[in-house]
Amino acid sequence: MITLEQLNHWLLDVPENEHLEFKEAKQQFDTGKLLKYCVALANEGGGYLVLGVSDKPPRRVVDTQAFLITGDIKARILNALHFRVDIQELQHPDGRVLVFQIPSRPIGQPLHHEGAYLMRAGEELVPMSPDQLRRIFSEGKADFLALDASAAIDADAVVAALDIQTFFELLKLPLPASRDGILARLVSEKLIRVESGQYKITNLGALLLAKDMRQFDSLMRKTVRMVKYKGKNKLQTERDLIGQKGYAVGFEALISYINSQLPVNEVIGQALREEVRMFPELAIRELVANALVHQDFEESGGSVMVEIYADRIEITNPGQPLIPTERFVDEYKARNEKLADLMRRMGICEEKGSGIDKVVFNTEYYQLPAPEFWVTPVHTTVALFAHKDFVDMEPKERVSACYMHCCLKYVSNEKMSNQSLRERFKLDDTRAKTSTVSQVITAAVEQNMIKLDDPENASKRYAKYVPFWA
């Protein structure tokens, strides 16, 4: 039961979110649009659609004459969507308010209206992505990593299939004196499970510790593939390698091999006067680890892929990210938390939320263009690009570097300025260079990527900037 007190609390203190939507609807509200909002809110866990309230802050009651006979619209919703929505009519001193209380969808069952599975995105209603739909359909099902990768085997076969020595070395733990101690640890980490006196290796155990992934038929397509091309496109392949070891026990060898295949730059900027690989190893390590941790194992026919070109490296994992790409620097949400936890404890990937900012820092230190992220319906890709002087960067690359630099400053508890961005681009403080960097900042502001930290400060020269989401 929604009270006037609850309504006033919403008006004063609660912004719109995936569970709360305000609409003025002074005279009427389109029934088709109402049905779509019911579906979208239900798909995101249920919530409230409030008619008769201004949808822009500061919010106030504006009175609504929509759906005067609430019983009729309740019946139409039930007939069209096959679930019940409660409707409450409030008489506020400033006018009539109508509150639709929309229940959450059933577990594992997304809802649709006329074939469209909808969700909210800001002020818009948009179709849910295949990745989001797959996650809903898989709710209530067994976690992929907990499924069995092997048939029932004895203890000797477990020790033969998994690299036990490396596992304990990575965790910096002494190897137990007895085999029972080893098996007990593997069971506690859910890498194996006991069944009728025998053992089954889980997908988690095989993916991390397998000596040879070819022993696990169901996981063969989950190994890492590395392809090196001779030029800037896929026309000529120089090398094509498919990994055979588990992610954890084979990680160092994989990174070493990738690093050995990278092109060499003789000089990068003024700070480095020696031959170095085109891309910093720390950035490669973090991006490969991220791809392994955040991949969607339910996406069939795909694996983590590392592609090396003459001017860039692309790292792709199956599945769409759980957060927008522009928030990779400051937010973190792992799709496979158990896998991520073990890989963090093994020292393979960084602590939560601290990985991509290290990638950005290293691209700035090595004076590379900003990393680029893009998403398709079934994949997420990040690319690192070869060094470019500022004068050779495209406008889009300059603005992207500005945004990433602004994000990096913000998560470091600092603020971006014209001076800090000049230092990022290795430009001097002459009037011409200051003006050029100001143009980049202006473009980033106009594209709503960054904003002034203090809008009241009229001095552009000394202005500070923060990301749009700050």
Quick overview of this protein structure:
The chain has 470 residues and is an alpha+beta fold. It has helices at 4-13, 31-43, 70-81, 130-137, 155-161, 164-170, 179-188, 203-209, 251-261, 281-294, 337-345, 355-365, 395-411, 418-425, 431-446; strands at residues 20-23, 47-51, 86-92, 95-102, 118-121, 124-127, 192-195, 198-201, 225-229, 237-242, 264-265, 276-277, 305-308, 312-318, 372-375, 379-385, 450-452, 465-467.
What would you say this structure looks like, in words?
- This protein is of the alpha+beta class.
- The protein has four domains: 125 residues, 2-Layer Sandwich (Methyltransferase, Cobalt-precorrin-4 Transmethylase, Domain 2); 75 residues, no CATH class; 165 residues, Heat Shock Protein 90, CATH 3.30.565.60; 77 residues, Winged helix-like DNA-binding domain superfamily/Winged helix DNA-binding domain (Arc Repressor Mutant, subunit A, Orthogonal Bundle), CATH 1.10.10.10.
- It is built from 15 helices and 18 strands.
- β7 and β8 form a beta hairpin.
- α10 packs antiparallel against α12, α12 crosses α13 and α13 crosses α15.
SSE blueprint and pairings:
Elements: H1 4-13, E1 20-23, H2 31-43, E2 47-51, H3 70-81, E3 86-92, E4 95-102, E5 118-121, E6 124-127, H4 130-137, H5 155-161, H6 164-170, H7 179-188, E7 192-195, E8 198-201, H8 203-209, E9 225-229, E10 237-242, H9 251-261, E11 264-265, E12 276-277, H10 281-294, E13 305-308, E14 312-318, H11 337-345, H12 355-365, E15 372-375, E16 379-385, H13 395-411, H14 418-425, H15 431-446, E17 450-452, E18 465-467
Parallel strand pairs: 1-2, 9-13
Antiparallel strand pairs: 2-4, 3-4, 5-6, 7-8, 9-10, 11-12, 13-14, 14-16, 15-16, 17-18
